[in-house]
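I hope you will forgive my troubling you with a question about protein structure. You will find the record immediately after this paragraph.
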Amino acid sequence: MKSDMLEYQVASYLLRKRIKAMMVPAAIIGYLVYVFFTFDIAGLRERVSIPNVKVLLSDVYSYKTHVARNNRSGDIEIAIEGERKGRYPAGKSPEWVVLGDETVIDLGNGHVVVFGQQITYDIPNFGRIAAQPDKDGINAVFPTDNLPGWINVSKNRLAIKTDAGRLTVTRNRAEVFRYFAGWELFFFTLDSPYHGMSLKQLVATGDYGDILRAFWDNKMWRHGDVAWALLETVLMAFLGTFGAAIIALPLGFLAAKNFTPLGALRFAARRVFDFLRGVDGLIWTIVLSRAFGPGPLTGSLAILLTDTGTFGKIFSEALENVEAKQIEGVTSTGAKPLQRYRFGVIPQITPVFLSQILYYLESNTRSATIIGAITGGGIGLLLTQAIITQKDWEEVSYYIVLIILMVMAMDTFSGWLRAKLIKGDGADY
C-alpha cells in the first residue's frame, strides 16, 4: 500500500514538473502570437516602400544638384541640394550643364535633357519625351503609349525617374536632379576661393589660417555650429551627472541604516530617491522645459534629477556595505565624526562611486542627444532639424557619425579615467 502511494506521489510530482516545463514555452509562443497580430507583422510588407528606402539610403551617402527653369521667364537656377547657400552664380554651371538659348543637361550614359522651347528628355532604348508647359497643362508627348512605371504623368505634372537622374515638369517649373556620391561642399562652399582645390594646392597656398576659417565657417555644413553643439551635449551630460553625484552623496548617508538610525528619516530619503528615478528623464525634460523654457540648462537639470535618485540608491547601498573595522580603527585614534567619515568611509566607497559616476557620464552623453532634441540644445537639436526637413539626409548621417564618435570618445575617456583613479593605471586606454 505504501509503495503504491509512493509511486502515485512520484508520478504526480513528475506530471507537475512536465506541466510546468511545458507552460514556459507555451507562454512564450502565446506571447509571440499576440505580438504578431497586435503589431500587424503580416502587414509590414505592405507598409514598407522599397523605392523610398532606396532614395533614403542613397541620400545618406550622396548629394543631388538641382537644375531648375522658371517656365514663365526662362530663368535657369542651379543649386546643390536646392539650397541658396549652394547656388551657382548667374552664368556659372557645372561642366555637365551647358547654358545658352537652350540649356543642355547631360546626365551621362546617353541621358540628355534640354530646356528650350520644349522640354525634352532623350532616354536610351526608349526614345524622346517632349513636354510643352502652358496654361492648358504640360502637353507631354511620348514615343509609346505603353508607359513604364518610372514615368508618372497627369495633365499638370510629369515625373520621370531613371538611374541617371530625375526630371519633374509642371506648368510653372521644370527641374532636373542629378545624384553624385559624396558630401559636396563639405569642406568649402562655392563662394570660397578654396573650392575645388586639391590638398596639394591648399598646402601650396600657405594660408592655413584662412583655410581653417573657411572650413569652420562653411555655410552649408556649419562645422563651427556643429562643434559647439557637440560641446553643449557633453556639458549637459557632465553638469547633470556630477551635479547629481554631489547632491546624492550626503542624501545617501541619510538613507543608509548604519549611518541614520532614525527609520522615518531613512524612509523619507529612500522615497525621494524612488520618486526622482521613477520619473523618466524625458518626462523631467518636458516638465522642466515648460517651467524654465528650452535650453541646455533644462536638459542638465533633467539629467540631474533622474540621476540624483539613481545615485542616492546606489550610494546608500554602498554605504551599508562598508567595513566597520576600518571605521573603528580610525575612531581608536581619537578622530572626530567628520574625520571618521573622511578616512574610514570615503576610501572604501570611492571606487564604487567613481565607477558608477563615470559609467553614467558615458550613458548620459547618449541621453543628452535625445534630451537636447526636446529642450532645443546640443547636437540633438541639429539632428532633429535635419530629419524634419527630409531634404539633406547626408547631414543626418554626418550628425549620427559625430554622435557615435562622441560616445566612443567618452567611453574611452571614462574607461581611462576609471582605471587611472581606481587602479592607478590607465595604460590600456
Q: What stands out?
A: The longest helix spans residues 337-375. The CA atoms of residues 241 and 361 lie 6 Å apart.
